[in-house]
Write a structure and sequence with these properties.
The complex is a heterodimer of chains A (about 60) and B (about 725). Chain A is mostly helical and about 60 residues long. Chain A has helices at about 10-25, 30-40, 50-55. Helix content of chain B is about 25%, strand content about 25%. The chains are: A mainly alpha (about 60), B alpha+beta (about 725). Chains A and B meet through α2 and α3 of A and β4 and α16 of B.
Chain lengths: ~60, ~725
């Protein structure tokens, strides 16, 4: 789900676009999102073990 | 009033259905409604949507026609139909073709081609179908397994989607009302080829292709599949209601509820989802009564619904409405199967599926597509892995009951497919059938008399189940061929094959015994999810169905392996020690090869996935305990579960199949080639990041997307990595 928009200078956008293509991203947006996610690291709260087990329950490949 | 409004909405649907409008506009219907709107507001939103869509239809047709006036300009065909038969195994198909038992697939092969289809690394459905959808390997789409690991906690997460509650809430009294819809995030990266087709004015129907939950927004219609949850938020938890208090609780995949009986009246509660409106988040309960009529029948009463259940017969889909408070309800559907009335009452209930007519989470695009299909054909299974394999593993459902359930779901899918095919005058129509995969998982043991899973189970009676299933699918192919035109391109494919799963390997125990994984002091065995593992001393751990991760400094929270030389050396050491690992009991090779992620993946997410992929030999797979991070003292064990066939093994030995009514020129077509092929068929330029090629035009020499010379490509082309050449 998309939220706020961010503006980039055209030069930077062009460089980003070129890099994204070479690096194997399907779009500039995907590249930027990935870079930002990596920079932020995994700071979001994780679920409890019980919640995790519950979410995976019933997956046939796992016990 | 409600009935009149419903009738009007239905008339709106019927109008556009019979008007044979452009496909996207034919799916007008009552709006999906929002998870926690009241009944009145849901109806109001539905009819506003219906009116809006109806009256703006002429304008939207004109705009769409102008915008996509160049669509199909360079197309080589008007229609592409893809029938995915998950897990169809080439050796079984080839034997049955030789025996003349698959006449339609034989016909298709003679019209065009048949070939093996190289699968993904690893050969697991979420990875494989993501490769199919995007035309890139896992390094490009970021789905390496059903599970991914959290780098901070080492705990598992579903790799393909994340569902969470909205952050903003308002509290009053016992309530804590979420403001906004649940947050449902799609985690597969890159871009599906149907999205690209849509951007070029080409409409697609995409039904139950795995890893489409939540559904994408694109110029088309989609039904979500693997890993759409049940109403509990799990991947499918069944319920067993019984008066027998002495029964052991179900170990996996199910919930036992002890119910009370007074003469012939049984009372109990159906457990629903957690109440996300209250602070206590209590599980919602729906009371039910079962009036036992005789040994063979009971009348089930839920709300005002009265359903007569016959023993050993699946019921129709029954609506289950859970009251959350403040006039809000959450609705799901389930089938019931009466197991016994005397001496003890035993009643099985499927996992509670999201109701396609009142979806609590997005399971289709447009939102109202699932509602439209439900109004047309009746309610249907929406759970991602709908066939309840754990109920058979746990001995709650019999083999016959499981098969009946699988085919009921299959029949729903067939109806949806033929309806979509009929609506696809031009564009793509793609569907994936799951029954092929689930039935082989559960009945593969019957193909081998000495399979360890045969102990204590009937075998002879079910020996022909798999063959009969292949023949039934051949029938489906025949019915499809009767509906297609000469110019259509028709592809029948599978994402991987199938082999026996006889022995499990707990690689974490091997890693522990060889000094790569360390338990905390004083602990000899860890529980699930690596409880008791000392991460500050652990260098490598096996995770999910096929991956080994190194515990890397700066990547994992407690990483100890330095990137660079240490990392490379450790990787090489593990590859050397594990490739060719021998099972001491059988003397057989258990692991053919360990694959270095940097040699099998390219793309921006390569380092987010496992560092090594295990190439298990035929007969072997990660053990049940190994898959959930239990570290005890058993490396090899027999697989005795009903789940006796699998494909999470060396991808080189478990390719899928591809049949087509056109000649395939690619020498070794693979999953990565399907996306570029379909784009090319519709005259849409292949994006630069896609690695595969058009299977109808490729020859021995495949030029890499980065322009590598044919000489280099020839050297690697015989390492069949998903059909595309791989470079460094």
């Amino acid at each position: 789900m998309l939220g706020p928009k961010i503006k980039l200078e055209k030069d930077l956008y062009d460089r980003v676009k070129k890099f994204a293509e070479v690096a194997g991203y399907s779009s500039v947006e995907e590249f930027i999102a990935h870079v930002l996610e990596k920079e932020l690291g995994s700071v979001d709260a994780t679920d409890s073990e019980e919640e995790i087990k519950k979410r995976l329950q019933g997956l046939g490949y796992l016990s | 009033m409600r009935r009149n409004l419903s009738l009007f909405a239905l008339v709106s649907v019927a109008f556009l259905f019979f008007a044979d409008a452009q496909p996207a506009l034919a799916y007008i219907g009552p709006g999906a409604g929002f998870a926690f709107l009241t009944s009145f507001m849901t109806l109001f939103a539905s009819f506003f949507m219906a009116f809006f869509t109806l009256f703006t239809w002429p304008v939207r047709v004109v705009v769409r026609t102008f915008k996509h006036r160049k669509a199909f300009q360079n197309a080589k065909t008007k229609r592409v139909i893809i029938l995915g038969l998950d897990g169809l195994e080439p050796t079984i198909a080839e034997r049955l073709l030789r025996e003349g038992k698959l006449p339609n697939l034989q016909d298709l092969k003679e019209q065009g081609s048949y070939s093996h289809l190289q699968t993904s690394y690893p050969a697991i459905s979420p990875v494989a179908w993501s490769a199919f959808a995007t035309g890139v390997n896992a390094g490009g789409h970021n789905i390496f397994d059903f599970l991914s690991r959290h780098k901070q906690t080492y705990m598992p997460e579903l790799s393909s989607s994340k569902v969470g509650t909205p952050k903003r809430k308002v509290s009053f009294g016992k309530y804590e009302i979420p403001l906004g819809k649940p947050i449902v995030k799609f985690l597969r990266r890159s871009k599906s080829f149907w999205t690209i087709l849509g951007e070029n004015g080409i409409f697609s129907h995409v039904l139950r292709v795995p890893i489409t939950f939540p559904p994408e927004k694109f110029n088309g219609a989609m039904l979500s599949a693997m890993c759409a949850p049940d109403l509990w938020g799990t991947q499918g938890t069944f319920s067993l209601f019984t008066t027998d208090g002495s029964v052991d609780p179900i170990k996996e995949g199910g919930d036992t509820s002890i119910v009370t009986r007074d003469f012939n009246r049984v009372e109990g509660f159906i457990k629903g989802p957690e109440n996300s409106l209250t602070k206590s988040k209590e599980q919602l309960l729906l009371p039910f009564v079962a009036n036992i009529i005789n040994d063979e029948e009971a009348e089930l009463v839920i709300d005002k619904q009265k359903i007569v259940l016959k023993r050993n017969t699946h019921s129709e889909w029954i609506e289950l409405k859970f009251k959350a408070g403040l006039g809000i309800k959450v609705q799901g559907i389930a089938r019931f199967y009466l197991l016994a009335t005397n001496p003890h009452f035993r009643l099985y209930m499927t996992p509670i599926n999201i109701d396609p007519e009142k979806p609590a989470l997005p399971i289709s695009f447009p939102d109202f597509y699932s509602i439209y299909l439900a109004k047309l054909h009746g309610k249907f299974a929406t759970l991602g892995l709908a066939e309840d394999t754990w109920s058979l593993n746990e001995g709650v459902l019999s083999e016959d009951a499981f098969l009946e359930q699988a085919y009921l779901i299959h029949d729903e899918r067939e109806k949806q497919f033929f309806h979509a095919l009929d609506k696809t005058k031009r564009g793509l129509c793609a569907v994936v059938i799951d029954a092929t995969d689930r039935i082989q998982h559960m009945f593969f043991r019957t193909l081998e008399d000495d399979h360890p899973a045969n102990q204590g189970k009937e075998t002879d009676r079910y020996k022909n189940v798999i063959e009969e299933m292949y023949i039934k699918m051949d029938g489906l192919v025949g019915k499809t061929m009767a509906k297609i035109n000469e110019d259509d391109i028709f592809i029948v494919m599978s994402d991987h094959g199938f082999k026996s799963f006889r022995r499990g390997i707990n690689l974490n125990v091997w890693l522990k015994e060889n000094g790569y994984l360390v338990l905390k002091e004083g602990i000899e065995k860890s529980g699930e999810f690596f409880q008791g593992v000392d991460w500050s001393k652990t260098r490598a751990y096996a995770f999910g169905l096929a991956g080994i991760y190194l515990n890397v400094k700066g990547r994992e929270k407690c990483g100890v392996v330095a990137p660079g030389e240490d990392y490379d050396q450790l990787k090489a050491e593990l590859i050397n020690k594990l490739s060719g690992l021998i099972d001491p009991l059988t003397g057989e090779i258990a692991i053919n090869e360990m694959y270095d992620n940097r040699k099998i993946y390219n793309g921006p997410y390569t380092n987010d996935g496992p560092d090594l992929i295990s190439g298990y030999n035929i007969g072997y797979r990660i053990s049940w305990k190994g898959a959930t991070g239990v570290v005890d003292d058993v490396i090899f064990d027999d697989n005795t579960k009903a789940w006796s066939g699998d494909h999470c093994i060396d991808p080189k030995i478990v390719p899928g199949v591809i049949f087509c009514n056109q000649k395939i020129k690619a020498v070794k077509p693979g999953l990565l080639d399907l996306a570029p092929t379909v784009l090319s068929l519709f005259g849409v330029k292949k994006p630069g990041y896609m690695r595969g090629n058009n299977i109808f035009e490729s020859s021995d020499i495949d030029v890499m997307a980065d322009g590598s010379s044919p000489k280099v490509v020839e050297k690697v082309v015989h390492d069949p990595v998903e059909g595309a050449a791989v470079g460094n």
